Predict the 3D structure of the following.
Amino acid sequence: MVSRLIAILLVGMLAACTGLSVTPLGKNFTKDDLRIAVIGTGGRNGQIYSRALNSLIGGAADPAFTLSSELSVASSSTLTVRGSSSNLKKRSMTAKITLVDAATGKTVMSDSISESSTVGTVSSYYAQTRSDKHSDERTSLLLAERVAARVHLYFLDAK
């Protein structure tokens, strides 16, 4: 009796979900809709970040907005987990972004967005340097995605 009831409930739930469709909330923006010129940021991390950000939201022929960023990197050498130290490094990268209306020159959005990663340390100096470089490259890409999402949220709120 109980097993029949469970089977009927499962069939009912599956039948109820067959017509379910998922649609995004709000309007989807394309790069042409946003019309943002991404101003390049210096250094290797800035180059990776700017290229990724430009591919996500920039590249307009006639920009209505300019997006400038300032990247900063910080590192702490040892993490402590519940009272015991480890050989891990925490690296964080912060982007201070400013979105400016090209027509008026006014700043319409200013924000600071951070991303962090944990890096294992090794005894070799070369391996530590390479690990830090790889961490910074991956963090630059993740930060570009977060900045693009933040800019999209700004335009969703503005509309």
About this structure: The chain has one domain: 28-158. The beta strands are 36-38, 65-76, 80-81, 84-85, 88-101, 107-120. Residues 28-158 form a domain with the Double Stranded RNA Binding Domain fold (CATH 3.30.160.150).
